[in-house]
Amino acid sequence: MPWLQLKARIAPERAELLEELLLAEGATAITLQDAHDDPVFEPERGTTPLWDETVLSGLYDDLEGLEAMLERLAAAWAETLPGEPCPVIEHELLADRDWEREWMEDFQPLRMGQRLWIVPSWHQPPDPDAVNLHLDPGLAFGTGTHPTTALCLEWLDGLALAGELDGVEVLDVGCGSGILAIAALRLGAAMATGTDIDPQALQASRDNAERNDVAAHELSLCYPEQLAADRRFALVIANILAGPLVALAPTIAGHVAQGGQLALSGILERQADEVLEAYRDQGLTMDEPRVREGWVCLSGRRPA
Predict the structure, then answer these.
(1) Share in percent of the chain as helix, strand, coil (round to 5)
(2) Distance between CA 144 and CA 263 in Å, rounded?
(3) Helix (H, G, I), strand (E, B), or coil: what is residue 31?
(4) Does 34 share its domain with 135?
């Protein structure tokens, strides 16, 4: 049986209204997507941000009465927001498919470096003897598919091969899904601390840690302001964005112990020089950038 999909481009402040109207018309599913491939990072705590222009879609299993439905939607919009034109609602028929299976097939195990794999729960590890992290796509907090996360994971894998992760304490700034902290622990780190401004990220990190058999005493999670300013770590990772990385340079660099190492990502290639300079100003010796698909991972060390 085919499905009817209604789709409209809409400003974020109007997305909730249109969602309510589509659900009132019997939508079986609502999808929100970015209209311009502009990812949202580091939202304000307690908020659910949308993009500058959002594509909102509703899926229906009833193909009858499309014109009447569109008229009702336009009338309900006009009643709620008099004088504001209703967004243009496009429609199309979608062939009946096993949507869940197709979605799952989009996510295959990912190899990160020599030893590390990211494996969705519905797959068997390609290499049972490798370090396999079991992580499913979720709230876009980081699953290894984005170049910034992949670069950080490969960097951690290289440290593990060199024995530089053995027994160290790790700080993951902006931990998101917890993937970097969990990877560090599974690769040999003794303990890790993850901080994030979003309570959903801390919960996602906690859930993923349990899924990967990380003991509660190995990973501690907190908001940034709860981390003691004088706490030092042998390894600090911050995969956020260039702006926050520059603004927080004194704080992030201040957590790097003498002889400790640092990795920074979430940086566009054109932003690398500004971030490098900010951390050199904090007394760190920085390496040459590693670049992938226009994104950069920077690493460095505080002299012993």
Answers:
(1) 30, 25, 40
(2) 16
(3) strand
(4) no
Report pTM.
Answer: 0.69
Query: What is the number of alpha carbons within 13 Å of residue 300 lying toward its C-beta?
Result: 25
Q: CATH number, domain at 200?
A: 3.40.50.150
pLDDT for the residue numbered 41: 39
pLDDT one-digit tens code per residue, 121-137? 888 899 999 999 998 76
Mean pLDDT of the chain: 87
Contacts of 228 (CB under 8 A, 6+ apart): none
Same domain, 57 and 167: no
Indicate whether 156 and 255 sit together in one domain: yes
Same domain, yes or no: 156 and 240: yes
The pLDDT value given to residue 80: 92
Of 75, 96, 117, the residue that ends a domain is: 96
DSSP line for 225-287: GGS-TT--EEEEEEES-HHHHHHTHHHHHHTEEEEEEEEEEEEEGGGHHHHHHHHHTTTPEEP
Residues 117, 184: one domain? yes
**pLDDT score, position 38:** 46
| Strands of 35-75, DSSP E | 54-60
Ranges in the chain, pLDDT < 50: 38-49, 139-141
Q: Is the C-alpha dihedral spanning 94, 95, 96, 97 positive or negative?
A: negative
Residues 190 and 227 in one domain: yes
Q: What is the pLDDT of residue 45?
A: 42
Name the residue range of residue 194's domain. 104-301
**pLDDT value of position 95:** 74
